[in-house]
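QA checklist item 7 of 12: single-chain prediction sanity check.
[x] sequence parsed
[x] length recorded as 174
[x] structure emitted
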Amino acid sequence: MKTEIKLIKGDITTMTVDAIVNAANSSLLGGGGVDGAIHRKGGPQILEECKVIRNRQGKCKTGDAVYTSAGLLPAKYVIHTVGPIWMMGKNKETELLASCYRKSLEIADSLLVKSIAFPNISTGVYHFPKTEAAQIAIDIVKEFIDNNNKNIEEVIFVCFDDENYRIYENILAE
């Protein structure tokens, strides 16, 4: 099976795919950026499902992922992953960000997802260097496609801003 990797500039909440990934915070209760937009546009169902997950397991650890339905969004699922806050690389941020992508893909594959869209995890208020974050994202996606993928046919990187879009465009062109 050939999995296609695509890049678009846009709003992840409008993507008609099987799963979108949310750059969530550990509380799973919504926040700013992508997280806030997903909770606002997806409606209260996503928050209610996040509360059930929290009651079962507590907060979501950095580098881990969980999933809910997509509520009112055009996707079927939201995979919530908690990216690392950039601390100058002193707290295993690289490994934790890689884990976010890997675990999100594992969940998607287990849900028989055919298409998944990723935001630029940790590059907003968490200040992960954008070029390094994009390289990790692309490397982990390619590694997963080559070694573990059973169901995913399309991976879309959705960049909200021009800077991230250009960074991904340059890395994918290499």
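[x] summary fact logged: The mean pLDDT is 97.
[ ] second reviewer sign-off
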